[in-house]
Each structure stands twice: as structure tokens, then as C-alpha cells.
Amino acid sequence: MNTAAIEVAGLRKRFGGTTALDGMTFTVRPGRVTGFAGPNGAGKSTTMRVIVGLDAPDAGTALVGGRPYQSLRRPLTHVGALLDAAALQPGRSARNHLLWLAHSQGLTASRVDEVVAQSGLQGAIRRKAGGYSLGMRQRLGIAAALLGDPPVLMLDEPFNGMDPEGIVWMRGFLRSLAVEGRAVLVSSHLMSELQDTADHLVVIGRGRVIADASVAELTADASGGRVSVRTAMPGRAVEVLSAAGAEAAATGPGTLIITGSGAEQVAMLLSRNAVPFSEVSAHRATLEEAYLELTRDAVEFRAAAPGGEAR
Ligand SMILES: Nc1ncnc2c1ncn2[C@@H]1O[C@H](COP(=O)(O)OP(=O)(O)OP(=O)(O)O)[C@@H](O)[C@H]1O
């Protein structure tokens, strides 16, 4: 169960003068959702395209279930990929699109009905795919990726264009695929989408891996021993804590983040000085904070801050 479902090693790829992949190396394991994150242009789509043989790397290897994609017979039964939800024949009904794909791989029409039900498209399946919203196209892409009941799924920005209800559905759906034992690689540049979905995160920047760790490890590292405080007297709390040598910074109305002192010490100082508080707890960084810290130096395009220079 612990073998690598996708294994990418030393991938390099240039497009003219642009280095898209610069030694990309990571593995994706079964039974978990692996988030694949990085700033615009980091190389997420190119890596995924190389894995399924749509782009040829200049160097390095990409294996699915231990074999190069090109050597797989009936590849849809090995790996399902959603790479570009817009790539559809607009005049064809969604059902015919899936039937055509199924027949090309020796799969039955009843399998089409199963994946249509799984992806929640029953009501719209006879409509022309050209009239689908982006969210519906994502569902259709998921249905297509699932056709061959593959042990490996690779989805490029599947949350893109989905409404809040669709995002909640997608999160639960990706989790259920991992619980079934499948390896799920899902790219996104919105950490909020991955926060409650991914078990593991591969963060990339400028064509290479910056971090490859569990979501729990990444957020614990970014938490950095800080303490969150909620108080009706933030000014007084800052005074008391600063006098004791801790650093206190306001993060919102009535909320502070403290560095340089543990939670127990902070609670004791506030109590002793009669500063009321409703919460003192170890700060738990969001995945977004962890991600921003990791990718600070790897952002290719960053808007200039108002009145300042791009960092
Ligand atoms: N066919 C191509 N021709 C030229 N340059 C390309 C091509 N495909 C990708 N690139 C370049 O390679 C780099 C990596 O692009 P890629 O699409 O893989 O990044 P990404 O992480 O998926 O970005 P995004 O989050 O914006 O989708 C970028 O600089 C991009 O402009």
C-alpha cells in the first residue's frame, strides 16, 4: 500500500528561454490527497502534462504505478487526469463525450452512468457540453477521469470556477477517493481549498520542490511557538506582556499574537495584572500562512505594493 503511485525524478523542461521544470522530484502515495501548490508559472501544469505524456521532458523520468505513461495499456484504467476542463467538443452532449471516451478504452455505457452519478451530473448529462458552466465542466472532467476506475487521479485546479456548494462537494469527493485507497494529486494556488482536503503537500516554485511534507508538519512549523490572545483590553495586554519581555502584535480587533512567551506564561501574566481575556492558546497557523512563508522567494509575478516596489 505504501508504494509510489506517481514518481517524478529530476524532471527538466525548457520552453525557449523559459525554464519550466528545473529538477522536479517528488512522489505521490496511495490513500491520501496530495496537494500540489505553487505560484503562477511554478510548473504545476507542465509537471502534470509530462506525467501523462502530453509534454516530453528534456531530462528526468515520470512513472505512474512504476511505469512510464506511454507504456500503459488502456491508460484510463491506471490514471485519470483532469488537465483542462475547457477542452471539450462544444457541440457534443456531455453523455456522448463520456461514451466516446469509454468506448475508446473498451469500457461500457453502464460505467458512464456510474461516473455521471458519482460526479453529480445526472440532471444535465444530455445537454451540450458547450453550454456547461466551468463548475459543471469540472464535474464532467472528474467523471471522465474516473471512467477507468483508476488507482491514481491527477486533477489540475479542479476547484476553479466552482461555487461554494461545489467546492464543499469537491473537498468531500477528493477525500472519499483517497479513503478508497486511491492516490489523488490535486493542484491549486488557493490554500484555503487544500486546508481541509489535502493530507500532504508538495509546494513548488520556479520548477522545483520547495517543501514536501504533511499538512500538519507544515502548519506546525509555521506556527513557530506563537500564542493567540483574545481580550477586551488589548492595549493593556500589550503593555503587560511587553513589560515582561514578550512581543505582542494586534491581528484584529481584540486579538493579539504573542512571540517570546508560552501560553501558560501569557495567561499567568494577564491574570496577575487583572487583564481580562477570553482566549489564550497556542497559535495554529493556517496553511495559507505556511504557504506564503515557503513561497516568499519563489513568486514569479507579484503585484507592487501600493506606493512601494514589488518584493
Ligand atoms: N507551451 C508552452 N510554451 C511556452 N512556455 C510555456 C508553455 N507551457 C508552460 N510554459 C511556461 O512554463 C512555466 C511553467 O508553467 P506552468 O503552466 O506549468 O505553471 P503553473 O504552475 O501550472 O502555473 P499556473 O498556476 O499559472 O497555472 C511558465 O513560465 C509558463 O509560462
Automatic annotation (TrEMBL):
Domain (ABC transporter): residue spans on this chain: 6-231
List, alphabetically, the Gene3D superfamilies matched: P-loop containing nucleotide triphosphate hydrolases
Keyword Ligase carried by entry: no
> What UniProt keywords apply to this chain's record, in alphabetical order?
ATP-binding, Nucleotide-binding, Transport
InterPro entries to which the protein is assigned, alphabetical: AAA+_ATPase, ABC_transporter-like_ATP-bd, ABC_transporter-like_CS, P-loop_NTPase
UniProt keyword ATP-binding, yes or no = yes
Q: Cite the GO molecular-function annotations of the record.
A: ATP binding; ATP hydrolysis activity
> Which family does the entry's similarity section mention?
Belongs to the ABC transporter superfamily.
Its name, as the record gives it, is ATP-binding cassette domain-containing protein
Report the source organism: Trebonia kvetii
Print the organism lineage.
Bacteria, Bacillati, Actinomycetota, Actinomycetes, Streptosporangiales
